[in-house]
Write a structure and sequence with these properties.
Elements lengths: L62 E5 L2 E5 L10 E4 L6 E2 L11 E3 L14 E8 L2 E13 L2 E11 L6 E3 L14 E8 L5 E7 L9 E6 L14 E5 L11 E9 L2 E8 L8 E7 L6 E8 L1 H4 L2 E11 L2 E9 L8 E10 L5 E5 L2
Parallel strand pairs: 5-9
Antiparallel strand pairs: 1-2, 2-3, 3-4, 6-7, 7-8, 8-9, 10-11, 11-12, 12-13, 14-15, 15-16, 16-17, 18-19, 19-20, 20-21
């Protein structure tokens, strides 16, 4: 398939993924730092977005990045912000970033002109931020149109000089998945060990046709569009009839830890406590990926509907930032949590602390 224009939406329907294969064996094992999966308990003084306080309110679909000795977390719109952004030095206490004058601040100046999102910061979902091309790239999902009665979503990019923005949106969407009524959502930006840029996303599926599927495609070196000659590659798809997965797979997050590439994903209905996180082991950014199965569930973690996860590494430890429903508030309040994971000898993962 020929390369799509650098900033234009894809115009061909993706193909269904091939049957999963066993991931390639690892080469001679290098020496890695000892794992130290210490517990991380997220705390805060306010459920209201308030400059100068530590925040513990609504924060869904978190994505985490590190720069300049600080951690930054981004989320689906809340508190009237297009790109709500928190910062932390210890992963436990998170405060809203603010303007140089100490005022409330939105890290995304404005969404792309292609969006039909509501005003007041509503309608932008599941952002991902990563250092690319000497700056920072933001990927986000938003509504472009209505297709067959459904909110049809596209993924757009924005650029900034720093992880705090202000991010400036590129003019056209990058990925629209026109074959799916609900389009493309849940972008994840990933930089591999060779310094190549990638974007993963959810193809929302076709009723009575292709199930929801996680795709990946290489981005350009400057993080502003597709790499020349690149094409979309399917990694994993929803298994209809699977009790754990329900009827969807979404919210991908890829990372490499101790020589193994992992793909984390969310399954089931995000509106319920059945929402959960599974994972796969992959041979590299383009797979093949073999599903391992459940990792974070309500029963295993003690948190309700743990999903929307973002993987990141701290020293010798692998963590997942994720959201979960507050007890008694399923369907209305999703808070930030940070889980600590342990890699076992066979490269599978276990949850050391759910957070």
């Amino acid at each position: 398939m020929s390369a799509a224009p650098a900033a234009g939406p894809r115009t061909t329907a993706p193909t269904a993924p091939a049957a999963p294969q066993q991931p390639a064996a690892r080469a001679a094992t290098p020496v890695f730092p000892a794992q130290d999966p210490r517990p991380v308990s997220v705390d805060g003084s306010s459920t209201t977005w308030r400059v100068g306080s530590t925040y513990r309110g609504v924060f869904a679909d978190p994505d985490v990045a590190f720069a300049g000795g600080r951690w930054y977390a981004y989320a689906t719109n809340t508190s009237g912000l297009l790109l709500p952004t928190l910062s932390s030095t210890d992963l436990s206490h998170w405060s809203p970033i603010h303007s140089s004058g100490g005022a409330k601040y939105d890290a995304l100046a404005a969404p792309g002109a292609w969006t039909t999102s509501k005003s007041g910061g509503a309608g932008l979902w599941a952002p991902s931020v990563a250092p690319m091309g000497g700056g920072w790239t933001l990927a986000y999902a938003a509504q472009q149109s209505t297709l067959r009665g459904e909110r049809h979503n596209c993924i757009g990019l924005a650029r900034a000089a720093s992880p705090t923005g202000p991010f400036r949106a590129l003019a056209a969407p990058l990925e629209c998945a026109p074959a799916s009524p609900q389009g493309a959502i849940d972008p994840d930006l990933y930089v591999d060990k060779l310094g190549r840029n990638w974007m993963l996303w959810k193809f929302s599926g076709v009723p009575s046709g292709q199930p929801s599927t996680i795709y990946v495609r290489q981005l350009s070196a400057d993080g502003t569009g597709w790499a020349p000659g690149s094409q979309a590659v399917p990694l994993v798809a929803n298994d209809y009839g699977d009790g754990f997965e329900g009827d969807t797979i979404e919210n991908p997050s890829m990372t490499t830890f101790r020589g193994v590439t992992y793909l984390f994903y969310s399954v089931n209905s995000y509106r319920s406590a059945a929402y959960a996180t599974g994972y796969a082991v992959c041979g590299g950014p383009t797979g093949p990926c073999q599903k391992v199965g459940p990792l974070l569930t309500t029963a295993r973690s003690g948190t309700l509907g743990p999903g929307g996860a973002s993987a990141f590494v701290v020293g010798g430890s692998l963590h997942l930032a994720y959201h979960a429903w507050d007890p008694g508030r399923v369907g209305s309040l999703r808070r930030l949590h940070v889980a600590s994971l342990m890699q076992l000898d066979d490269a599978t993962l276990t949850v050391a602390h759910a957070g």
